[in-house]
Design brief:
Blueprint (H helix, E strand, L loop, with lengths): L1 H13 L9 H60 L6 H38 L4 H21 L14 H5 L9 H33 L7 H6 L4 H15 L16 H18 L11 H29 L7 H24 L3 H20 L21 H24 L20 H17 L5 H32 L14 H26 L2 H13 L3 H7 L5 H10 L7 H29 L1 H5 L2 E2 L17 H4 L3 H18 L4 H25 L3 E2 L1 H17 L14 H10 L16 H10 L12 H4 L2 H9 L7 H8 L3 H10 L1
Parallel strand pairs: 1-2
Helix pairs in contact: 3-4, 3-6, 4-6, 6-8, 6-9, 9-10, 9-11, 10-11, 10-12, 12-13, 13-14, 13-15, 14-15, 14-16, 15-16, 15-20, 16-20, 16-23, 20-23, 20-24, 24-26, 25-26, 27-29
Length: 818
């Protein structure tokens, strides 16, 4: 019924109307093709069906047999369980059995490990002499086992359980269980034993190869290059390369990168032995008073061996993977171990003789300097503090060294300042600038530089601070005190009350001595300023700042002397450098010396001027009947310098060249422009101009004396515009030499003296500020223009009024107006 229904539905769908009957043949053919395909499939199924059915039946029988077996096994297990003792101790029995099984498994692993170690050890021992490459390979396998065991070891008590596999198992598959410390110790012992065996064999092989090359004499690199196939060279390459393959054993926790190479140790053996033979034994070459001999020997070895080390040896290191290694620096490091060993032996003996100790320290510093600057040595691992650091390894050594350095520096200082020519200038000095150092100052700077060289490379901050505080700063104070004592001696020698018969030194000699003091202090002060800008002292200053940031921190740092704590705090302060306070003290003394020099010159000048100064009346009659005539009289009186003034000029011409020859040019010009010139100007202005009475002729006479005698005759020797040093005097004389009234015949446009007076009277009766620096703001425009037209720029209105009132004509004119 269902089939008929489906057929009916299909026909209705495909033959819905009469027009669709045309497709009936095609539809019938398609149905026939489907029928044939289905018939083929049914035929195939009828053939394979029995086979599959037979297979299903076979699987069913097998499953039934397996089921019967499982049922039988279940019954057996049930009987065993029923027969098993019942109670609370059955789990303990199972755990004990499990523990025994774990122990047995672990014991088997240990046995296997021991067998592997024994096999590899035997392979190393048997192949060391006949096949070194196989021996090294077996040795490397042992190293790998030990490395793996070290990483997997948990260092926990044995509990009979296996360790869980970690990431290290993938990197090191030789082991997968925790190895106890006893086993690690055994492995370490075996590896060290084999290492010594291999190292001994390879060392002998390398020593024979070096001996064939003539070591420890310098090896000719050029010869090796020409004879690349030389059997001796090939033997060295092979032996050195095999030594590079030998890795030193390491205990747990050590870095993978070795600190030393056995091959380099073999290279160092004979040179170090040779050095110790000559310089640490009873040989005549080992002399305490000749430490430079041993240093020279080391430097000579470095020089001779450098081509071989930097060439073939360095190439072999890089060939075998030691790219970051420097053969020369490692070789030097080995030699320096021997040098420092010798120094440690010698220091106790040197401490008994300060002279020898000082000499040894100097030579050690020179040796360190040569290594750094000539051979560019840098320690392969870490910072190299220099061989001189040995002197600070023990506190008592350093303290004694400091005492000796103090004594030596003090003695040299005393010799420097007490020498016959201590304050004589250094001949042919070629330093920077126009400095003129004395012999004592130059030697003193060398003493300070030598002390700096002593402590510059000391590794410990407190040691450097001790040298600075206990040697350099006290010596700087001593030199300054020496100059101060000299000042007292020279000042007291010229006490105003002279005893009868007293022999006083020449004042010129005194001035020259004061100038030498100035030059000495200025030279030292200039050097200290330069030092303050050097990187070493800048870094040192920053160290002082950091180390003294907190008071408690300073206690921990300053271990040599607790007093250094206070010194460090003083050095910190507000100073920009370590020498600011010292430089300030030196500069203050220099200024005092300069004041003394100026004071002496002005005192002598004032005494020489007393006859010239006491003349108040400068009203001079002229052969010309018209005293207001602008023409300058040809009278010899006006064309010659006043005899009384010549004495003062002679004083200046004696003193100024004397101090000029004893001072740097910049210092002399500074004194002349800043001190001497203004004081001369003050003297003339206050003691001569403001106290005298002048007419035009008298003013011209004084102007001639000042201009021709003082300005051009004396000061013009050193400055281009000497009148600028006597500004108030020259401006005052410009006013005093003005004609009273302007003559039409003169043809000049300059205002007359009467014009100036009228402008003064119109300018608020002359009530103006006495501040010369603010004249432009305080004076009337017309008055200032008139004054500037006659060359008056600096004098204030009040001073101008005081000056013009010294003209007798103006005095009479004012009296008539009053």
């Amino acid at each position: 019924m269902a089939v008929a229904t489906r057929v009916s539905a299909l026909l209705n769908e495909r033959l819905a109307d009469l027009s669709s009957l045309a497709d009936l043949p095609k539809f019938t053919a398609d149905l026939e093709d489907q029928r044939l395909k289905l018939a083929g499939v049914a035929s195939q199924l009828s053939k394979s069906g029995p086979v599959r059915l037979s297979q299903v039946c076979s699987d069913t029988r097998s499953a039934q047999a397996r089921l019967e077996q499982l049922r039988g096994r279940r019954k057996t297990l049930l009987r065993k369980v029923e027969a098993f003792p019942r109670g609370e101790h059955h789990m303990e029995t199972l755990m004990e059995a499990q523990t025994k099984l774990s122990r047995l498994k672990l014991a088997k692993r240990y046995v296997d490990l021991l067998l592997d170690v024994d096999d590899l050890s035997s392979e190393v021992e048997s192949n060391t002499a006949r096949d070194i490459k196989r021996a090294l390979t077996a040795y490397d396998k042992l190293q790998a086992i030990y490395k793996s065991a070290s990483r997997l070891n948990s260092n926990q008590p044995f509990e009979g359980t296996t360790a869980a596999r970690s990431e290290d198992d993938a990197l090191h598959p030789a082991l997968g269980f925790t190895v106890q410390p006893e086993m690690l110790k055994y492995l370490n012992t075996v590896i060290f034993s084999l290492y010594d065996l291999l190292k001994g064999h390879l060392s002998k092989k390398l020593e024979h190869a070096l001996e064939a090359l003539g070591w420890p004499k310098a090896v000719s690199v050029e010869s090796l290059r020409r004879q690349a196939t030389d059997p001796h060279w090939l033997a060295f390459k092979s032996a050195f390369g095999d030594m590079l393959l030998l890795q030193a054993p390491k205990t747990n926790g050590e870095a993978d990168k070795p600190d030393s190479l056995p091959a380099m140790e073999v290279l160092l053996r004979l040179p170090v032995l040779q050095y110790k033979y000559h310089f640490t034994g009873e040989r005549p070459t080992n002399r305490l008073d000749k430490p430079e001999w041993s240093f020279t020997k080391v430097l000579a070895m470095i020089r001779d061996f450098s081509p071989f080390l930097c060439g073939p040896v360095q190439s072999l290191l890089e060939e075998y993977g030691y790219v970051g290694w420097d053969a020369k620096n490692h070789f030097v490091e080995g030699l320096l171990d021997a040098v420092m060993y010798k120094l440690r032996l010698d220091i106790p003996k040197l401490l008994e003789n300060p002279r020898l100790f000082t000499h040894a320290s100097k030579e050690t510093y020179a040796f360190d300097k040569a290594l750094r600057e000539v051979h560019l040595y840098t320690k392969p691992s870490g910072k190299w503090d220099g061989c001189a650091s040995v002197f600070t390894e023990r506190r008592e050594w350093f303290e004694q060294w400091l005492i000796m350095e103090m004594a030596a520096a003090k003695a040299t200082f005393e010799d420097a300042v007490q020498a016959d020519k201590a304050w004589e200038f250094v001949e042919d000095y070629f330093g920077e600038g126009d400095a003129k150092p004395t012999q004592s100052a130059e030697l003193f700077i060398k003493i300070l530089e030598a002390i700096t060289d002593r402590y510059r490379l000391l590794p410990d901050y407190s040691h450097r601070l001790a040298f600075l505080n206990e040697l350099q700063l006290p010596l700087l104070e001593d030199y300054l005190q020496e100059v101060r004592d000299g000042i007292k001696r020279h000042v007291s020698a010229f006490h105003p009350v002279n005893t009868a018969g007293a022999s006083l030194p020449s004042k010129i000699n005194r001035l020259q001595m004061l100038c030498r003091y100035i030059c000495s202090l200025q030279f030292i002060s200039s050097n200290l300023r330069e030092w303050a800008n050097l990187p070493f002292f800048i870094e040192f200053r920053e160290q002082v700042r950091k180390q003294n940031k907190l008071t408690n921190e300073a206690d921990d740092v300053l271990e040599i002397d607790p007093s250094l704590k206070a010194t460090a705090a003083e050095l910190l302060g507000d100073q920009a450098s370590l020498f600011d306070e010292v430089v300030a003290a030196y500069d203050a003394t220099i200024r005092r010396l300069q004041d003394l020099v100026v004071q002496d010159i002005m005192q002598e000048f004032s005494e020489a001027m007393w006859q010239y100064d006491k003349r108040r009346n400068w009203v001079i009659s002229s052969s010309d009947s018209d005293s207001d005539s602008p023409t300058f009289s040809s009278s010899p009186l006006l064309d010659e310098i006043t005899p009384e003034f010549c004495t003062a000029l002679d004083t200046l011409t004696s003193f100024l060249p004397a101090i000029h020859s004893h001072l740097p040019v910049t210092v002399f010009l500074s004194l002349l422009q800043r001190d001497i010139g203004p004081r001369l100007d003050e003297h003339f202005f206050t003691k001569l101009i403001l106290r005298g009475r002048f007419n035009a002729q008298g003013a011209k006479k004084v102007s001639y004396d000042v201009s021709k005698g003082l300005a051009k005759g004396v000061l013009g020797r050193w400055v281009r515009k000497p009148d600028a040093l006597l500004r108030r005097t020259t401006e005052s004389l410009s006013l005093l030499t003005l004609p009273l009234r302007t003559s039409r015949a003169s043809g000049t446009k300059a205002p007359a003296l009467v014009t100036i007076v009228e402008l003064l009277l119109e300018s608020s009766n002359g009530q103006r500020s006495d501040d010369e620096d603010s004249n432009n703001d305080a004076q009337d425009t017309a008055l200032r223009e008139a004054l500037e037209s006659v060359g008056v720029y600096r004098l204030s209105t009040k001073k101008v009024q005081q000056v013009v009132e010294r003209r007798v004509e103006v005095e009479n004119l004012l009296d008539s107006l009053a």
